[in-house]
Specification:
The complex is a heterohexamer, with 3 copies of chain A and 3 copies of chain B. Chain A is mostly helical. In chain A, 81% of the residues lie in helices and 0% in strands. By secondary structure, chain B is α+β, with helices and mostly antiparallel strands. Chain B has one domain: Alpha-Beta Plaits, CATH 3.30.70. A 4-stranded antiparallel beta sheet of chain B has the order 2-5-1-6, with helices on one face. In chain B, strands 3-4 form a two-stranded antiparallel ribbon. Chain B is elongated and about 45 Å long. Classes of the chains: A mainly alpha, B alpha+beta. The structure holds adenosine monophosphate (AMP) (3 copies) and sodium ion (NA) (3 copies).
């Protein structure tokens, strides 16, 4: 199994997408003035969400829906809801974070990073490992449930300000990235083979290139975040950001086995469980838990967990998944 | 040309809050507001830059609102709870406008 | 003929482009925070204009210029100039709009929507129906003449402020979108087969994908416009926005027959005549007729006529065109 | 450091008008101006947002111009007809500048 | 609501200088600053527009900084040498803030 | 040889990229409101740098590194450092520019225009002329050395303000465009055949299309620059902007011969030597020589030398290179 990890891990390290991530990171740490304009970063994000959703939808239309899909959705939801409780317990036991900050960090880790998911599916594609089309739906299902759990935790610990309102729920659920992802999934299902063929040059052939550009930007952001949030990287918290993904991946793998996911699907569920949000959750928490310090969760999830998953996690989970589901 | 004294309120606030501030201003039926982009900044909560960002977090916007001096206090008192716990600043200054009835 | 309409209409409804339009519309009406940055929307618009113009030009270079082209240009110009008079008469007879507002709305309907034209040509491409390359030129010719007519109408009815100046004409004629469209058309003609082959991946293969992204944005805009302009959607005006495109399409079809346009070309001329401007004309009218309320014309053309043409109109005009020109 | 009192004129105006305002300012030989983007707003003519827009309509920009107090009235009187029929607002406020000769 | 008088310094400066100005403000430990985009402008050095530009040249940004009146002179004196040779302007105006301790 | 120039020159003139440049130029001079948003222009620039760098890297990995590469890098560095001295001498002899302004202009001409390089390599691709992959590295090496030379010149002539600081060097060397170019070159080398195949649709097939969009923007900028800087186009300076590229190209050609560059590589070295910077150098000079009037160098390099190289220079250098290195 170790061999099954080391070779893909090295291969992963020389993939253009990872290298462009590294370029962005280095440029940022060297304080280059390289910058991707905000409008461009948003375009790239919409492109990636649209493509990955649409491709998942056409996959789904092709292979049909089965019981495993419902089971996988349920597993994803359960992971997203349960993880924050585990993360909160670990953080309270090992760090000196205030309850509200621990709850906020926990929400990041219950939710997912869609970019990590995209990088993982890109890595699987490169290794010609197939996966279930519905995994995109699982990703979407895992995005927001963690926030509910975090609010419950904060309230129980006397840290949440007031009861979450209907307005908050709408803002969380109708988050733009969730809408594009799920919308494109449905459109992929409905528009079928003909639609897929029409869009293939856009959604498939360009995908690796746009992913490189996007990861270049992510590298710049990670570098900047590491610099600005370095005071949050002290030992217990820093270790949490490396250990929590492993815990999550283990839970994801355990749930994937009874469902009977393919090795590719298992790797993706592990990746989702291991990943931590740094886009949707932070924005929602500024509305839901304004007292929490936003830079702790962001530094840990974007600065540590994201690059860890990108470089080490994805090949690791893929190797483990091949072993347990192969 | 005759001008009339008004108050200009400027609120620099985290982008995820923008919609709430605006909905609040619209509910109060203020005569209007304008939202300006901000590129970068620094405050008590550290420094930030907009470029490269994908979502709304970690970024500020500036909401500007011209109101009558008589409305100022009420507006500030209503906005204060919204911005108090959040990252952001509020400033007020004097301006002259040329169409009194417009505000 | 009904059958010739229903099947393509359903097919049209499940095309990715239309579905992404619907996604944007729904997201906007549900008040999701999904947004396409302005710089991105402009890039997509320039891309679409450049591609459709260039492709028209290479088509034209391939098939050569003939008398039908001049006749089609003349027909387009006549439609663009005459339609505002008809629209103005209808609006004054059926609605309570002030003369200046009726003149402004009439200008929208005399001009064209290039996005509708692009969607129509995309639909024809998907059905492998060919059309004359010069139709892009006809579209360009129809963009601005309607504004002249509207200013004449406004002046005659004592509603135009002052005489349009040379500066105004320059602003109207050298409108960026017209320049890109016509410029790309000429470049397509000049750069010939070799140029076309070089740019094909960009101008042709990516086209359906970028169109999806752009229509997602249009859906968001339409939803926002409907919400903000709902007071203008009362019955007589709302009906006008549905009836006027049918009237326009009929006129377009009648003019296409003597010219001998192909079924594809006929469908496009009908679509152009049926479509209403919501980009170039509103901007020009803010300079030319500042007294007119800008949101009336925009709500009707963007909020009602555009989606109507997209969903119902284009397959309808295509079916009728196949019947009268087939 | 010595500073000098000037007037700051801010004009929030529909984007299609921007070029005309600017051409007007250039023709008057004012010492300078700056144009700022606006993201969203609300006024008498309803609310608007820039994002997603393809053209110039339905969007505002902010033109800012620092002038001497002695020039203010003339400027306002000349600009007034341009903005009167259009969507937009004009405000004036006091500012100090550090290089007098610059303005 | 009680407000406190502060000074608002606005510096419109060539974009390549932005980083230096900011580093300078950070070194001085001012409580904060905000950077705003500018779309176009004109001054002694001619007119410019941001659109279409690829690099930082030929484009200005606006740095805004709210400081205490007691700090103003020092700030201006320190910033003056930075902006003196460059293209740009500096203005100062009065503002009221609602959270005194914040600045 | 003349024949070898005229045919490609005409061919060049009808290439879509050049025609779109012309379209932008004409639109700008006619004062159309056509504009490419800044964020879009930056995206296009990053795309072009990333693609050209990556492609150069994969070329390099394929053909391996040899002594010619080091020689070419040395030749580029020498050209970049020496050219400003020559340019300064010419400017002082023929124009009335102040020393500081002459030094600043000289820096533009010692450095290079990466867009001109890209246009040249695109033209070579279209003529199926191959060139050394390391030429991208040569381009990168030539970007910044000229600034050093210009600062020395300015100091010697009592025009430079103070000694360049370490901060300045970091800003100059870690300039975003240099970082992307060199970074992508290394990534191209590391990621090899597999990476290249993956990114080909993005980096190669789309390249001509994105180049058209970018040159449309450059045309708009050149038009605007010509209008705003026309006072700097008086005779001696204007002639300098046409003569200096020819001088540079000659020097580049002379250095290419002993190195044994291929005809394509020779054409590129000539083009690099002939081109003048209008992005990186002007920005650095605002920091390094703030007293210099920025619009003189920009008007000459962007307004005159860039279009001259694009339209006349590139086919000329290609023809000469075929002759001396063929
Ligand atoms: N003194 C200041 N001057 C200008 N802008 C400020 C100042 N303080 C804060 N800001 C802006 O308001 C944001 C939030 O401030 P804070 O809540 O102090 O972190 C900062 O990121 C700046 O954009
Ligand atoms: N009271 C106000 N405060 C700030 N901005 C305003 C105000 N009123 C109007 N505006 C801005 O000016 C634009 C035009 O206003 P109006 O002509 O009233 O529709 C609005 O869309 C806002 O961007
Ligand atoms: N009087 C003014 N009012 C507003 N902005 C100005 C003024 N003068 C200069 N500016 C801005 O400051 C920039 C630099 O000015 P200058 O150094 O005079 O070329 C200009 O391009 C404008 O953006
Ligand atoms: Na997770
Ligand atoms: Na029409
Ligand atoms: Na050179």
């Amino acid at each position: 199994m170790l061999q099954n990890f080391i070779e893909p891990a090295l291969h992963n390290l020389t993939s253009p997408a990872i290298l462009f991530f590294g370029l962005g990171l280095v440029a940022s740490l060297l304080r280059s003035d390289l910058a991707i304009p905000e409008a461009t970063a948003k375009l790239l994000a919409v492109y990636l969400l649209l493509s990955i959703g649409f491709r998942g939808g056409t996959e789904l239309a092709h292979h049909g829906i089965d019981g495993r899909m419902l089971a996988a959705l349920g597993a994803g939801a359960a992971l997203s809801f349960a993880t924050p409780f585990a993360a909160f317990a670990v953080l309270r036991a090992t760090t000196t974070l205030r309850p509200v900050d621990a709850a906020a960090v926990a929400a990041h880790y219950g939710s997912i990073s869609i970019v990590t998911f995209i990088a993982a599916s890109n890595a699987l594609d490169r290794q010609s490992i197939t996966y279930e089309g519905f995994m995109v739906g699982v990703a979407a299902a895992m995005e927001t449930l963690a926030i509910v759990a975090a609010l419950l935790i904060a309230q129980r610990n006397g840290a949440g300000s007031s009861r979450p309102t209907a307005a908050l729920w709408r803002e969380v659920i109708l988050n733009g990235s969730v809408v594009v992802l799920i919308g494109a999934l449905f459109i992929g299902i409905v528009s079928g083979e003909r639609g897929a063929a029409l869009l293939r040059p856009f959604t498939n052939e360009l995908f690796p290139g746009f992913l490189c550009l996007f990861l270049l930007d992510m590298g710049l952001l990670v570098g900047r975040g590491l610099e600005q949030g370095r005071q949050h990287l002290a030992l217990p918290a820093g270790l949490f950001a490396l250990g929590m993904p492993l815990l999550g991946a283990a839970a994801g793998g355990l749930l994937a086995m009874p469902i009977g996911l393919s090795p590719g699907g298992t790797a993706l569920l592990m990746t989702l469980a291991a990943s931590a949000s740094y886009i949707a959750v932070p924005a929602a928490l500024r509305l839901a838990l304004p007292d929490a310090n936003p830079s702790i969760g962001l530094t840990l999830s974007l600065g540590v967990t994201f690059p860890f998953n990108l470089v080490v996690g994805i090949p690791l989970y893929t190797a483990v998944a091949a072993w347990i589901a192969g | 040309m005759e001008t009339y004294l008004k108050k200009k309120v400027e609120i620099i606030i985290e982008a995820p809050l923008m919609r709430r501030i605006i909905e609040h201003l619209e509910a109060r039926q203020v005569s209007g507001y304008s939202v300006f982009p901000v590129l970068a900044g620094r405050g008590h909560e550290g420094s930030w830059r907009a470029d490269g960002l994908v979502g709304d977090t970690g970024r500020m916007v500036a909401v500007m609102c011209i109101v009558d001096a008589t409305e100022l206090d009420l507006l500030l008192e209503e906005i204060f709870p919204l911005v108090q716990q959040q990252i952001g600043i509020v400033t007020v200054s004097d301006v002259q406008v040329i169409r009194r009835d417009h505000f």
